[in-house]
Amino acid sequence: FLGNKTSSKKPFDHEYLGDSLRKHLQNSSNSSELIILHSYAGHGSYLKFIPKSFGDLHIDDFFDDHSDFLFFRETNNNQKKLLDDYDKSIRYIDYSVAQIIDILNQHEEPAVLIYMPDHGEGVFNNSGHDSSRQTFSHFYIPLLIHFNKSAYENYFAIFEELTNDSKMSSNNLS
Fold first, then answer.
1. What is the pTM of this model?
2. Is the per-residue pLDDT at 94 higher than 90?
3. Are the CB atoms for 2 and 21 separated by under 8 Å?
4. 138, 136, 122, 98: which is closest to 44 by C-alpha?
């Protein structure tokens, strides 16, 4: 389990997880193992766990181009900022996952990434991932499976089966 929980001054996910994974892969003699990476990005306060360069990004003007009533029932600039900060954290998570994929693509042994957050966020109702206020959004999470070149070549039948499985979702991994 490689997670960013031990340091009082935590490096950001792309630094810590990337470096930890790279070192682990270099030093591991086990060709068959499960490595779990846990990210703190995407947890509220959303800007707390991402680099300032991502916090300063302008993602889009989506909420400026639509009526507040569609999403908030009234003008709520705090909710807009929360959603904008969440979007920035998701952009950072995309960047971090891409870095993990790059590391696995450089690895010569077969490697498969299964990216699936441990929970979603209740951004629209400002419930974060508070289990006492669960909504569908806490369970609605992405699923991404990536095979590096060696895994693709060695386990093509599995890759093809996953690719053609129309029932594949994070709710149905059997």
1. 0.79
2. yes
3. yes
4. 122
